[in-house]
Amino acid sequence: PPVSPCPCVLQICRAAAYCAAGCRFTATMDALTPFSRHATICLTRRQLLAHGLTPRQLAAAVARGTLVRPRRGLYVPAHTARGVVAALHVGGPAACVTAVETYGIWTPDRRLVHVWLKPNAARLRALRLSGRTAVGEAHHELRRHWRPLLESDQCESWRVGVLDALVQVVRCQPRAIAIAVLDSALHQGVIERQNLEQLAVQVTSRQRRVFDRIDARAESGTESLVRLALVDAGLRVVPQVLFPGVGRVDLLVEGRIVVEVDSAAWHSTVDAVTRDYGRDLQLVRRRRWVVRVSYEQAMHSRRQVVEAVRAALRASRAS
Predict the structure, then answer these.
(1) What is the DSSP letter of 152?
(2) Sign of the Cα pseudo-torsion (7, 8, 9, 13, in order)
(3) pLDDT score for 28
(4) Continuous H helices in 173-301
(5) Predicted model pTM
(6) pLDDT at 11
(7) Which candidate, 230, 205, 201, places its Cα nearest to that of 215?
(8) Which residues in the chain land under pLDDT 70?
């Protein structure tokens, strides 16, 4: 018959298991503590060793997935945005829309990896990562930014300052995207109106035209894109209009047509859809036509959206 293990042996084994689990937990916490103390997400190997971590602990943290090493001698926590990891892998801090996203500002879903590089930057790498540092299929191309920074003292080890990132957006991105990003930056309170003057003097006279269309009332980037398309078509558009008993609507066109720009994040649940239908019924009772626009239509089919709004205007006037 099998022999039962000695209770003392079982107690020792349990103690060893608890000790090992505790060591793993402590090692994880120790690996992340230096980042919180420095208030950053990017530290060098030398900085981490100075905090008391050993080379073996660093290797273990990378193996467990607690830390990611974008390039030799550089570490970030595993939750770091993939675009930032990719920029650091290439050889510089995140720039343009890659940096803008980290400030909580709206950016389009599909985008390149943007990295800022010093004029004398050397030992740059191609954007090819593997294993735990992979950046995914959405970040398969790279755009480098070389121009001197507006606020070099605000540049961190992993991203440029917010004003420099926004200047790069105006220089780099299509007009509509640049306006949507600036709308979001103002609406979120990341920058103030006076900052726009600092940005305007850093770009060409043609690029400066984007500042004429900025509206901080926009609550989403897709709303800004649709608003801009309608205004460019010569229509009068007012964002975020309040209808008593209904609430705010995204856009009111020519005082007649309500345009609601939906997103999967806020309009996909059963409760949200039911609420939207109820709002639409209330608006129709008030002789307001409602045009709903999806994220994909706002991003890629704005011309068709303008045509639909114009058709709704003609129908509303004929009725």
Answers:
(1) G
(2) positive
(3) 53
(4) 175-187, 193-200, 221-232, 264-267, 270-285, 295-300
(5) 0.83
(6) 47
(7) 230
(8) 1-29, 128-140, 264-270
Q: What is the pLDDT of residue 88?
A: 96
C-alpha span between 165 and 97 (Å, rounded): 7
For 236, the token pair is 């009068």
Distances from the Cα of 195 to the Cα of 185, 310, 313, angstroms = 11, 36, 38
What digits encode the pLDDT tens for the residues 154-205?
Answer: 999 999 999 999 999 999 999 999 999 999 999 999 999 999 999 999 999 9
Edge to edge, what strands does the sheet with 247-253 contain? 237-243, 247-253, 257-261, 289-293
Q: How far apart are CA 110 and CA 273, in angstroms?
A: 26
Q: How many other CB atoms sit within 10 Å of the CB of residue 138?
A: 13
Cβ atoms < 10 Å from Cβ of 87:
31
Residues in the chain: 319
Torsion of CA 98, 100, 105, 109, to 10 degrees: -20
Q: Is 217 exposed, middle or buried (0-12, 13-18, 19+ CB in 10 A)?
A: middle
- 68 Ramachandran zone, left/alpha/beta (phi>0; psi -120 to 50): beta
- Number of Cβ atoms within 10 Å of the Cβ of 273: 12
Rounded to the nearest angstrom, the gap between the alpha carbon of residue 53 and the centroid of all alpha carbons in its chain is 32
- Strand segments, DSSP code E, in 106-256 are 113-116, 142-145, 237-243, 247-253
Helices (H), the chain: 7-38, 45-50, 55-64, 82-90, 96-102, 162-172, 175-187, 193-200, 221-232, 264-267, 270-285, 295-300, 302-318
The C-alpha angle 225, 164, 104, rounded to 5 degrees, equals: 55
